[in-house]
Design goal:
There is one protein chain. By secondary structure, the chain is an alpha+beta fold. It folds into 4 domains: 113 residues, Beta Barrel (conserved putative lor/sdh protein from methanococcus maripaludis s2 fold), CATH 2.40.420; 88 residues, Elongation Factor Tu (Ef-tu), domain 3; 62 residues, RNA polymerase II/Efflux pump adaptor protein, barrel-sandwich hybrid domain (OB fold (Dihydrolipoamide Acetyltransferase, E2P)), CATH 2.40.50.100; 74 residues, Helix hairpin bin (Helix Hairpins, Orthogonal Bundle), CATH 1.10.287.470. The chain contains 3 helices and 25 strands. Strands 3-18-22-21-20-19 form a 6-stranded antiparallel β-sheet, with no helix packed on it. Helix 2 runs antiparallel to helix 3. InterPro entries: Beta-barrel_RND_2, BSH_CzcB-like, RND_pump_MFP, YknX-like_C. This is Efflux RND transporter periplasmic adaptor subunit. Keywords: Coiled coil. Belongs to the membrane fusion protein (MFP) (TC 8.A.1) family. It comes from Undibacterium rivi.
């Protein structure tokens, strides 16, 4: 009987202890929450008052956000000439080097003209002989016609004289054609610049054999540069002639160039399935070097959206936030960021801010949520800035 009584007492003690622990849980949770809230208040209270100037803040505004297909390619001149040999001979002299500026008509390359000049002299001699032969045959024909009128020659002799005249006339025409061809070949031994430009590539040197069709020099017009790009075939329906294009060129850092679509190729490439698009520069701001890689966007659609510059955003992993001015305090606001505008470099703000909100232009790592702020008065003397500030205040800075 005593044993049963002890067991009942033990069970009752255990249940009482459990009941006391359950009752203590809400008290412990309330104490932890109170401690956390108190710590946050102490942290905010410990943060010094932030003195800001008008240039430290900015107002959130709605701006035009452009988007469209990506275009990649290179910078190429519209006016370019690949000068090749039109006669088979030896290169005597190359007068221009890569990068040399040339004017229209300047001599670039001289070719050996010895054999061509001999052919010209021979053709001209043959033409003169043929002219004399034609003159003699024509006079003989006229004499026979006079004799035939008086019945002193036969009709056959007259016909033979006419045949000789026709043959002499044909020989003269052929000789003149050979002389003209030789004269043209002689002119082609001097290669001249077809327009004002720059020698972009020299292909031969003195002593080389210049066969017909061999590349000699290349000349480009650096003022006629354009963006020769390619667009994916599945995006080509969004491209129209006249659409604005913003792009960057490799070698020109962060400089942005503007242009517009001037031509869309009617056929896609069989291998890459891309369509060529020609983009003309919108102004004289263009590179002077051809072949540079370029990439940008064709602005096929434009919508109004809230945007912020990259410097006003703070990124922490996959999240982004900004510091909004909430009356006399700072408020950390989580943002839903969209795509980046290639033209301005600003990011689309899909949620978290409203038009007209005021945010810090250059957030600082020392900012605290709920921190007190105050607009700085315009100082009369620059040297006095910060000299009389209390120890419990700081000045907003643009660095992180």
């Amino acid at each position: 009987m005593l044993r049963k009584t002890l067991i009942v007492l033990a069970i009752a003690s255990t249940l009482t202890a459990c009941s006391n622990k359950e009752a203590d849980k809400p008290k412990n949770a309330a104490s932890a929450s109170s401690a956390t809230s108190k710590a946050e208040k102490q942290d905010t209270a410990a943060a010094p008052k932030l003195i800001i100037a008008p240039e430290d803040i900015m107002k959130v505004q709605s701006n035009a956000l452009a988007s469209g297909p990506v275009v990649t390619g290179s910078i190429q001149p519209e006016r370019k000439a690949d000068l090749r040999a039109e006669v088979s001979t030896i290169v005597l002299q190359v007068l221009k080097e890569n990068g040399d500026v040339v004017k229209r008509g300047d001599v670039l390359v001289r070719l050996d003209e010895t054999s061509i000049r001999e052919n010209l002299n021979s053709a001209e001699d043959n033409a003169r002989s043929a002219a004399l032969a034609l003159d003699q045959a024509d006079r003989a024909l006229q004499r026979l016609k006079t004799l035939r009128a008086s019945g002193m020659t036969s009709l056959q002799a007259l016909d033979e004289a006419e045949v000789k005249v026709n043959a002499a006339r044909s020989e003269l025409s052929a000789s003149r054609a050979r002389a003209s061809t030789a004269r043209q070949q002689l002119q082609r031994t001097i290669v001249r610049a077809p327009f004002d430009g720059v020698v972009s590539e020299r292909k031969v040197s003195a002593g080389d054999t210049a066969a017909v069709g061999k590349e000699l020099v290349k000349v480009i017009d650096p003022t006629s540069m354009r963006f020769t790009g390619r667009v994916s075939a599945d995006k080509i329906a969004q491209v129209r002639i006249g659409q604005p294009v913003s792009f960057r060129i490799n070698g020109y850092g962060g400089q942005e160039f503007r242009g517009k679509v001037t031509r869309v190729d009617p056929a896609a490439n069989d291998v890459t399935r891309q369509v060529e698009v020609l983009v003309a520069f919108a102004d004289s701001n263009q590179p002077r070097v051809s072949g540079l890689y370029a990439e940008g966007n064709i602005e096929s659609t434009t919508v109004n959206a809230l945007t912020l510059p990259e410097g006003a955003l703070v990124k922490a992993g996959d999240k982004s936030y900004a510091w909004r001015i909430n009356g006399k305090t700072l408020k950390r606001v989580d943002l839903n960021i969209g795509k980046r505008d290639q033209r301005s470099g600003h990011y689309e703000v899909r949620s978290g801010l409203a038009e007209g909100d005021v945010v810090m232009r250059s957030p600082n790592s020392s900012f605290r949520d709920g921190q007190a702020i105050e607009m700085a008065a315009t100082p009369k003397v620059d040297v006095a800035i910060g000299a009389n500030l209390p120890a419990s205040t700081t000045i907003a800075s643009g660095g992180n």
